[in-house]
Amino acid sequence: MGTLTYKHSGKKHKLLKWLKILLPHSSIRFYPPQFILRDALVSSTKRTIKQGNEAAVIVFNIKNLRQISEQIGVKQFDRFMYSLKRMYADVIKENVSLEDILALHDYNSDGITLILRMDSEMHSLLDIDGTTSLILQKVKDRLQDEFPQIKADFETGYMFVEKHAASLKKAIDKAHKQAAAMAERKIHSEFNEMLFQMTKIIEWKQIHLLAQPIIDVASKQIRAYEILTRGPRGSMLENPLTLFSVAKQTSMLYDLEMIVLEKSFEQVSKNGSSHDIFINFTPVTLGNIRFIKDMERILDKYKNVKAGQIVIEITERDDIDEVEGLIQNIRALKFMGFRIAVDDTGAGYASLHTISEIMPHIIKIDRTVIQNIHHSTVKESMLKGLLLIAKEAGSVVVAEGIETEEEAIVLSRNKVDMAQGYFYARPARLEHA
Fold first, then answer.
1. Where does the chain cross the membrane (predicted)?
2. What are the residue boundaries of the structural domains of the chain, listed by start?
3. Running DSSP on this structure, what letter comes out for residue 307?
4. From CA 103, how far away is CA 88, in angstroms rounded?
5. CA torsion sign, 134 to 53 to 204 to 296?
6. In this structure, are strands 310-314 and 428-429 parallel, antiparallel, or unpaired?
């Protein structure tokens, strides 16, 4: 379970009580506030980062704890907090893969901090939103059943651990502070600093773009490029996951995605490239009432970039029915000549539902289906099934995350249209693509 150092003597009984009641499953690591983490979390986070993944810190707090304490009294409040943390532990244990849980930690006694291993791809930002919302809703439901008289005002925030920090423990502590600041929206806190940085990035358009080739599997020729976004070089926000997580939590996601769109058009116009260009958008941005007008403005500004060259890639797995205006805007974009791609197909039901609702021109198969497919007849059968769905929808197929020759051979054998991944090419600066 890892080595723990006591802050105060005589706490062993309390630790055992926490462990037994909060997290009966021994595979989950829980660290109560009375103890200082020595090596366990740092070593597991270090291992996660070495494997090319991200460590995400999620803070779950209750905004009106003081009012609740005054309402129900000290004795009942202790039982409330005890039950609340047990609920968090149970819900997390039931809904999150144990191998992805780096730690469950009570930093400040007001809530729970969950530290997760996340995939390094862009959609991890969207996964973390889904995970957070799921946990929070289930805890709310259980709390309502057990304490119907209490109206708790929940708040959450998240941040990714900086990978290249001199001290990983300090980086974890910093990520926790920033996640808590996002949750609490504090005045005079780290939230203000991140808000300032994000505002500056939006105002000065301080992002740079990379482009990863998408290859024709049969001919091995470049057919298209996918645009990848990075924040200011050398800053905490250079990491796209951190950049987009801060943008989302500071209500600047639409502005950031529109800057990506305009900079993509600007560079394609300068390059004079004839390749197709894939640009990622979240459903919330695509459904925005301003989106079509902003797209028309950019098309008019860069007249040598045609709509038919641009592929609008929907990056989120969430239920598209929940995003007002999305379907109407997708129809308008198709009418304007843009093509639509659905990302992460095969990762869950939501992507298949999205295909049936949108009927995209392009289906991108998630790398979880492709990874080590040469060792799995089940995965190859899944690929065959997705190819049949694509054929029925009239969609072209792009396989993502190809890292080995063996995976590429399976794609060729199954006549997949296009592919992208480090096996074919790494991302390069867009102006050099």
1. none
2. 4-185, 193-432
3. G
4. 13
5. negative
6. unpaired
Tell me the three state secondary structure of residue 278: strand
Which CATH number applies to 193-432?
3.20.20.450
The structure's pTM equals: 0.77
User: Any idea how long the chain is?
Assistant: 433
Determine the number of helices (DSSP H) and then strands (DSSP E) in the chain: 16, 16
Provide block-wise average pLDDT over 10 residues at a time, the chain (433 residues): 38 43 42 46 88 89 90 90 90 88 72 83 64 92 94 91 87 89 75 88 95 96 96 91 92 96 96 93 94 98 96 79 89 98 76 85 94 95 95 96 96 98 92 73
* CA distance linking residue 61 with residue 58, whole number of Å: 10
Supply the CATH classification number for the domain 4-185.
Answer: 3.30.70.270
Which of these, 217, 183, 84, 187, lies nearest to 142 by C-alpha position?
84
Query: What's the Cα-to-Cα distance from 429 to each of 111, 213, 265, rounded to whole Å?
Result: 42, 11, 14
pLDDT attached to residue 35: 37
Nearest to 336 by CA among 310, 363, 302: 310
- What single string gives the DSSP state of each residue in 311-379? EEEE---S-GGGSTTHHHHHHHHHHHT-EEEEEEETS-HHHHHHHHHH--SEEEEPHHHHTTGGG-HHH
298 Cβ contact list (under 8 Å, min separation 6): 261, 262, 265
Q: Which two tokens stand for residue 36?
A: 């200082």
Q: Is the dihedral of CA 419, 126, 182, 100 positive or negative?
A: negative
Q: What is the Cα–Cα distance from 287 to 299, expressed in whole angstroms?
A: 18
Report residue 121 as tokens: 């791809």
